[in-house]
Design goal:
The protein is mainly alpha-helical. Helix content is about 70%, strand content about 5%. The strands form two sheets. The chain has a two-stranded antiparallel sheet. A two-stranded antiparallel sheet has the order 2-3. Strand 2 and strand 3 form a beta hairpin. Helix 1 crosses helix 3, helix 3 runs antiparallel to helix 7 and helix 4 runs antiparallel to helix 5.
């Protein structure tokens, strides 16, 4: 029996819920999102329940590093007064933490990678994109539309440039979701394919036994690379949100 490397991305209904014509079942994707949120909240709660310790343990050090990393990211990517930046820090911190732990939990064998589904990453990216647009209008009003027409553009080219800039701006949300989904899905599929190949080669045995271990070494190396990609993709998603927020707050 041949197993498809895409089987690991199958959505399985755990608790069927039908409300009229709406199918709102509790699936394995919902379960792992709930587990991720619960783990993150529990981790932060246990670390901060007593205000932390003077000499931090491993978990407190991890949370502090995470906090400082996102704070520095916000300060570097968003221009303006600190009071303005810190308004958006909770949003950026929650987004980064959620994506990071979703990606890392997806690396555990027999778990489920939530961010490997386009509907999840697209829903997150569109929600944040709409929020960034609202922030732009709240900050600048109708003057926010000025980003569609850079200064010094000849008048005959203005209609075409406005259309191109508008399409480019709207595609930010789509590209943001596709980037995360594609990288996570492709990496996990490749690991699954090479793992199956390694197991088949090792099962053959014989005098080429040592040579059959080579695919396993490749799988281990690729798993390490995929772990780096999981962290990197959470970082890339977050830094792009910071850049889009900066563009909305500080029109160029």
């Amino acid at each position: 029996m041949v197993f498809s490397p895409l089987e690991q991305f199958a959505i399985i209904s755990l608790i069927p819920i039908n409300l009229g014509n709406f199918y709102l079942s509790f699936t394995n994707s919902s379960l792992f999102m709930l587990l991720t949120i619960s783990f993150v909240l529990l981790l932060f709660y246990l670390v901060t329940i007593n205000g932390g310790t003077v000499v931090p343990n491993a978990w407190q050090s991890f949370v502090e590093i995470l906090y400082d990393f996102v704070l520095n990211l916000v300060n570097e990517q968003i221009s303006g007064p600190s009071s303005v930046k810190l308004r958006f820090f909770p949003l950026i911190f929650v987004t980064f933490s959620f994506l990071l732990f979703c990606n890392l939990i997806g690396m555990i064998p027999y778990s489920f990678t939530v961010t490997s589904h386009f509907i999840v990453t697209l829903g997150l990216s569109f929600s944040l994109f709409i929020g960034v647009t609202i922030v732009g209008f709240q900050t600048h009003g109708l003057h926010f539309f000025s980003f569609l027409l850079p200064q010094g553009v000849p008048l005959p080219l203005a209609p075409f440039l406005v259309l191109l800039e508008l399409i480019s701006y709207c595609f930010r949300a789509l590209s943001l979701g596709i980037r995360l989904f594609a990288n996570m899905m492709a990496g996990h599929s490749l690991v699954k394919i090479l793992s199956g190949f390694a197991w088949t080669m090792l099962s053959l045995g014989g005098i080429m036994y040592l040579a059959h271990l080579a695919p396993f070494l490749i799988v281990f190396a690729l798993t390490g690379l995929e772990l780096g990609v999981a962290i990197l993709q959470a970082y890339v998603f977050t830094i792009l949100i910071c850049i889009y927020l900066n563009d909305a707050i500080n029109l160029h």
